[in-house]
Write a structure and sequence with these properties.
CATH class of the largest domain: Alpha Beta
Pfam family, one: DNA_methylase
Oligomer: single chain
CATH topology of the largest domain: Rossmann fold
CATH architecture of the largest domain: 3-Layer(aba) Sandwich
Distance between the termini: 9 Å
Strand content: 15-25%
EC number: 2.1.1.37
Protein name: DNA (cytosine-5-)-methyltransferase
InterPro entries: C5-MTase, C5_MeTfrase, SAM-dependent_MTases_sf
Order of helices and strands: EEHEHEHEHEEEHEEEEHHH
Largest sheet: 7 strands, mixed
Keywords: Methyltransferase, Restriction system, S-adenosyl-L-methionine, Transferase
Bound molecules: S-adenosylmethionine
Number of domains: 2
């Protein structure tokens, strides 16, 4: 199996964590690897954001490298698995695809040039679900063709964190590739999701509570069904308010009162992390607004873990 190397004691899987943020992918691989009885080693990580680098170092001990566009592929160590939740800013890819060079100027290009140079056996990419329809599907098409031209068998699917045990509706596209035609099967839903009650803290400082004015305003605009508490109230772009016994996707750039617990207060940092499936041992450092951005940008850990588990199963089953 090309995914693994025999180390001194245990089999070893080496991986790189690109656009690593606070390390959601790393947590997921580490959790999954334990179940497989092999050692996973992160040999390289990179993120341009100083706040993300600080939190990553606090939790994993490594300081990620910076801007990936400035890092030559030769500087990146050999690895078996490449992980990248690349930024979701809209990007346009034009022209007939002659090769991934046509994606130059996008951060996907940097993923592709590293894949071309290092040829890891397998990869997992993640992005917002809108990638599926961006430029009528053209952008995704170009990405998949580029990956195929590099020799990878590629699968993609939209998965929702709600289906993997978290009370957060977070739909993301996952793209999985392998140099062999492994029998990859997307993971099944593990509903029901955890009740919000288990995520919410009981003692919350008054500083998290929205002003009386904001609370009245939310109540005035609310027209939906009243569920038994707790609920998360969500304001959409048009200003409509809805409430559900789960959270809508946390977003890095959303307004301060975009999500309110019971229409009254903002989520605490710990609650945000729990909504993404991070363990309570995970440490966040920095301001509240930096934490909102970092956690909103991160991944739903059980969802990523399920994808990685399916990938490892498929690699193990593959008989050349
Ligand atoms: C969607 S987030 C990924 C978050 C990550 N998966 C996690 O679990 O936290 C994208 C990340 O790409 C980083 N980024 C953007 N441009 C970059 C660049 N040129 N080089 C390295 N990282 C970059 C951002 O700072 C952000 O943390």
């Amino acid at each position: 199996m090309e995914l693994l190397e025999c180390g001194d004691e245990k089999k070893v899987i080496k991986y790189v964590d690109l656009f690593c943020g606070i390390g959601g992918f790393r947590l997921a691989v580490n959790q999954v690897s334990e179940g497989y009885n092999f050692k996973s080693i992160c040999v390289f990580s990179s993120d341009i954001d100083g706040d993300a680098q600080t939190v990553y170092r606090e939790n994993f001990g490594d300081l990620p490298e910076g801007d990936i566009t400035k890092i030559p592929a030769e500087m990146i160590p050999h690895h078996h698995l490449l992980l990248a939740g690349f930024p979701c800013q809209p990007f346009s890819i034009c022209g007939d695809l002659k090769g991934f060079e046509d994606t130059r100027g996008t951060l996907f290009f940097d993923i592709a040039r590293i894949l071309e140079s290092k040829k890891p056996y397998t990869f997992v990419l993640e992005n917002v679900k809108q990638l599926l329809v961006h430029q009528q599907g053209q952008t995704l098409n170009v990405i998949i063709k580029s990956l195929q031209k590099l020799g990878y068998y590629v699968n993609h699917k939209i998965l929702n964190a709600l289906d993997f045990g978290l009370p957060q509706k977070r739909e993301r596209i996952f793209i999985v590739g392998c140099l062999d035609p492994i029998p990859f099967i997307w993971p099944n839903s593990t509903r029901p999701f955890k009740p919000l009650q288990e995520i919410l803290e009981t003692q919350v400082s008054s500083s998290y509570y929205a002003s009386e004015q904001i609370r009245k305003n939310r109540l005035a605009k609310y027209e939906g069904k009243f569920y038994n508490e707790p609920t998360i109230w969500h304001e959409n772009k048009a200003g409509h308010i809805s409430a559900y016994p789960y959270s809508c996707a946390m977003r890095a750039g959303a307004s301060y009162n975009y999500l309110l617990v019971n229409g009254e207060r903002r989520l605490t940092e710990r609650e945000m992390l729990r909504l993404q499936g991070f363990p309570d041992s995970f440490k966040l450092v920095g301001s509240y607004s930096a934490s909102r951005k970092l956690v909103g940008n991160s991944v739903a850990i059980p969802c990523v873990s399920a994808v990685i588990r399916s990938l490892f199963d498929a690699v193990e089953k593959f008989k050349p």
